[in-house]
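hey can u check if this looks right to u? its 483 residues, i copy pasted from the old doc so theres a chance i mangled smth
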Amino acid sequence: MGSTSAHGEHSNGEGFGRRDLIKRSAALGLIAVPTMSFLSACASGSDETTKGNESKVAVTKENPFGVAKGGKLDVVVFKGGYGDDYAKAWEAAFDKKWGTTSSHLATQEITSKLQPRFNGGNPPDVVDDSGAQQIKLDVLVKGNQLADLAVVLDAPSLDDPTKKVRDTLMPGTVESGMIGGKFVALQYVYTVWGLWYSGKLFKEKGWTAPKTWPEFMDICQKAKAAGIGGLAHQGKHPYYINVAIMDLIAKKGGLDAMKAIDNLEPNAFADNPVALEAVEAIYEIVEKDLLMPGTNGLTHTESQTQWNQYKAAFITSGSWLENEQLKQTPDDFDMQFLPMPVLPDSKLPFEAIRAGAGEPFIVPEKAANKAGGLEFLRSMLSREWSTLFAQQANSLTVLKDGVDPAVKLRPGTQSAVAALKGAGDNTFNYRYTDWYSAMATELENASNELMAKRIQPKEWIKRAQAAVNKATEDPNAKNNKRS
């Protein structure tokens, strides 16, 4: 995802099986291009190229990590909902400025391609470690395989050298990259998670976007009566339905309910009426036969494509959804984001949304050009590179005001931005998906059984608490704490 990250969407921090192949971003041509030529801004210094980067390079304010001119930069990106055109443009700009030669690998098979390289001590210099086959960040931290990125946060911002990079980031960005007390991942994409619907379908049917859970269930019933599914979900990747379950828990029980899960409390799920009510609410959709038919057996793109064909009223996802579905979305679909409707007596308002940084970029500790990797991350946090990402990936980055006003956003991204504004300070974001990947998998497995009617809500709660209890044995658990 994110992430979640992991993923997606996250990544998720969110990710975990959230984004599949999408051809090169069709957004190019559909969006106004910022007036300043992107590459010309990065061209300074390209004449001073010298080959070989063996010698120690003087560290200056302009070159805080001592990047050598010439040399190589090895970049690997997850090619999912965001495509990889943005990364190619970044690499071209970097090469022009530093005289480097970048190699570019875009893949969905992050683990199979990179695990042998990490094990062999010759990892890439920059990795977008995302998707279903992400190398789990907590696993890399345990093996001391990740560079501490605090130096990037403390480096001067490229846009305003009087500011540190850390002072230019959206709230929660630094927290979302911390594992075991160290800042090891730049979660680059600012993602919102929740429900999505077609503005066109709702207009045609005369439906109003629901704010409460009973209103949501009412529209699902009306959809069923009209011969379409109420809720579609990405059945083969239960990460997505957990967005709904976890959102309901956080909104009903407030931030304390979310923190109890991340902090591995003994009552995070067990004997917790809030958690049980959330799971029962999702299970009611299954019991009342309000799921889109067949959705349990579909991948994320299959399920999302059927939703694009008006076969369901709602789908859960993160804000990478629009870019991922560009090719499958009808021109007049009018994709719209919706915060999770609230259960009765919820502590957080309807406007509250799960939002935060996802899509982890890392620099391996043993990278051959570690200085180049760190500088690449600093460059990603310039307005120039952030705008480029927004143009080509239809998504926002963690840089505050990071998009040039000349860039026109698509309807789904516009609605996500509006929801973010509407939420104000009422945003929340779980950390367990990055901190305890095995626990996250157990929760997804339990949800898979729940959606298939093989277990009941009380059994889900039992399994979820067992996963939490097991995670307390993780060596990072003593440092992973939310206050």
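The first strand starts at residue 72 and ends at 78.
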